[in-house]
Amino acid sequence: MGRLSTWTLDGLWFAMMPSGLKTADVGGVCQVENGLYTVRYLIVNADDFGLSRGVNRGIIEAYRAGAVTSATMMTNMPGFEDATRLAQQNPGLKVGLHFNITEGRPLTSPQRVPSLVGTDGRFSYDISSWQPKDVKRELVAQWNQLIGAGIIPTHVDSHQHVQMHKPVYRTVAKFARSKGIPLRRMFYAPERRLHPMTTDAFVTQVYFHKDGKARLLKALQNLRPGVTELHCHPGRMDPQLPHLSEWSVVREKELSVFLDPQVLAALQAERIRLVHFGMLRQIRKKGRTIGSR
Question: What angle, rounded to 10 degrees, do the helices at 132-148 and 166-179 form?
Fold first, then answer.
């Protein structure tokens, strides 16, 4: 398989496999002519589902407006139970695992994951100390928490992109492969050969700044053929959120961008096919056009 290429566009980070690959090299993205992809599929994934009730509410608003097709859930945060209830009420929103070892407390007993926590039992974010066995133990616990809530994850990604760190990457990549689910494509992966099924491109940026709408519209206009994931952090304020995340009010600003009529119209005008991670295998395998709902 070719090397991962990365580029920027007005501050947006993109990661994508080189164009012109044969279909078999990337698993068979549908509608291919002369070795080039001709259809632009887009997954809009809202991160941090389960962080708080306000964040959950904002994600559901974006989903119901047609701006979000997917979300990844934090299973160890205060809004988890509320998020599972909302996910069950909105089955069209497909949910993956937002693996988290940097915020809050582990689901596993701190004594069983000592390299991940500090003396207070909370995640320490001391990357140099992380041990793969502890990463895997907590990953399995968070996965089982989601399964136990009646949610079958469509994919996995990681909070604050910790999967880019080698002790985490090998564990998460192998786990995703064992479950037969996609893992978020990042602009850097320590061992690309281990990477399981994934998208062709990943767009990462924040949209809560003054030029957020312009940046998002630019990203939509410049999507390349193939399957792209664009992630976001919409949400509503609630009393708990400022104690859980540095991003509080800004989540409402980002939500307003994704709810903007011009953005929603652009998704139609650009002839983008909205999909979710649960459809990725079908897109690869059957090579035909399918809708997001």
Answer: 40
Express each pLDDT in 235-280 by its tens digit: 999 999 889 888 778 899 999 999 999 999 998 777 899 999 999 9
Of 56, 18, 55, the closest CA to residue 37 belongs to 18
Amino acid at 59: I
The Cα 75–Cα 82 span in angstroms is 11
The ranges assigned to domains in the chain are 5-286
- Each residue of 131-148: pLDDT tens digit? 999 999 999 999 999 999
Beta-carbon neighbour count of residue 99 at 10 Å? 29
Superfamily of domain 5-286: Glycoside hydrolase/deacetylase (3.20.20.370)
Q: Enter the pTM of the model.
A: 0.84
Neighbours of 161 (CB within 10 A): 17
Other Cβ atoms within 10 Å of 64 Cβ, number: 13
Phi, psi of 170 (to 5 degrees): -55, -45
Q: Which amino acid is at 287?
A: G
Q: Give the chain's radius of gyration (CA, Å).
A: 18
50, 77 contact by CB (below 8 A): yes
Identify the residue whose tokens are 């996995």.
156
User: Can you tell me the mean pLDDT for 168-185?
Assistant: 94
Q: Give the Cβ contact number of residue 239 at 10 Å.
A: 9
Q: Residue 207: helix, strand or coil by DSSP?
A: coil
The DSSP element (H or E) to which 47 belongs, if any, is: strand 40-49
| The pair of three-digit structure tokens given for residue 65, joined into one six-digit string | 């407006």
Is-contact 272 17, C-beta < 8 A? no
